[in-house]
Amino acid sequence: MVLDSVLSSPHRRSPSFRKAFPPNELGSWSTLVQRHRFLLTALVLLTFLCTIYLYFAVTLGSSSCSGLTGAQKAQCQLELAKTSMAKGKLKIL
């Protein structure tokens, strides 16, 4: 019968599995942090690097001349350079 094969399956969890990890050890935040310290550190580092990347992508990538071509784009970039030099900022286009 199918029911007999399910009940005698070797993949069922044995009672010794429950004894290996007491309930208070699995639910503790300090235990989870200790076990996953590397993953948490990698996640924090990745978040920091993505934030820096997005900051520069937004500040350096935003240009009002992006839709123009040819002489119009050159004229627009020249105007942007003039205004940035007048403010005392040097921005590489």
Q: Please, could you describe this protein's structure?
A:
It is a single chain. By secondary structure, the chain is mainly alpha-helical. The chain has 2 domains: 18-62; 63-93. Helices cover 70% and strands 0% of the residues. The protein has helices spanning 2-7, 15-20, 23-26, 29-35, 37-61, 70-86. It is rod-shaped, with a radius of gyration of 30 Å. The N and C termini lie far apart (75 Å). Keywords: Membrane, Transmembrane, Transmembrane helix. The chain crosses the membrane at residues 38-56.
Low-confidence stretches: none
Shape, per Cα inertia axes: rod-shaped
Note the main sheet: none
Q: Radius of gyration over alpha carbons?
A: 30 Å
Strand and helix order: HHHHHH
Number of strands: 0
Helices and strands in order, then pairings?
Elements: H1 2-7, H2 15-20, H3 23-26, H4 29-35, H5 37-61, H6 70-86
Keywords: Membrane, Transmembrane, Transmembrane helix
Transmembrane segments: 38-56
Which keywords apply here?
70% helix; single chain; 93 residues; mainly alpha; 2 domains
